Amino acid sequence: MNLSILKQFGSNKNYKAEKEGKIYLEINRFFPSSKTCHLCLNQVDSLPLNIRSWECSNCQAKHDRDINAAVNIREVGVRLLALGTSATAQGGNVRPKRGRKSSVEAVAVELGSPVPLWAG
After folding, report:
1. Which of 18, 39, 56, 83 makes the best surface tag, with the fewest CB within 10 Å?
2. CA-CA distances (angstroms) from residue 103 to 23, 77, 100, 118?
3. Which pLDDT tens digit goes with each residue over 46-85?
4. Distance between CA 36 and CA 56 in Å, rounded?
5. Could you tell me the pLDDT band of residue 4, with boundaries at 50, 70 and 90?
6. pTM for the whole thing?
């Protein structure tokens, strides 16, 4: 597929989201959403595409591959929104915007870190 078509698709999604008062975020395409346990954040080494469900070796939770991936993607989106940025230190611009300083304290958690959202 042509790269310019993909960029236009992303741009259209962003436009539609803004028009409806929503936020459009993209996560790294190589984020291991399917093979990371959304409960304990343990990551399996390999998870071939023909494996549709798996059990975490750390917490013994049973996962449906697609549901687990959806939960992980949602949590990454929530984490990015909580940090107040759509970019991370993994390739994005991390410099603060100029202007008035916020009274909100930054959380020292980066995308992919093993800290669950409910930890505080």
Report:
1. 18
2. 23, 22, 9, 22
3. 999 999 999 999 999 999 999 999 999 999 989 888 887 5
4. 9
5. confident
6. 0.59
Is the model more confident about 120 or about 30? 30
Rounded to whole angstroms, the Cα distance separating 49 from 60 reads 21
Tokens for 21, please give them: 């008062």
Instruction: Tell me the three state secondary structure of residue 12.
Output: helix
Which one, of 111, 114, 113, lies nearest residue 59 by Cα? 114
- In 3D space, the residue among 90, 93, 92, 95 whose CA is nearest the CA of residue 113 turns out to be 90
Cα–Cα distance between 78 and 118 in angstroms, integer?
A: 11
Length of the chain: 120
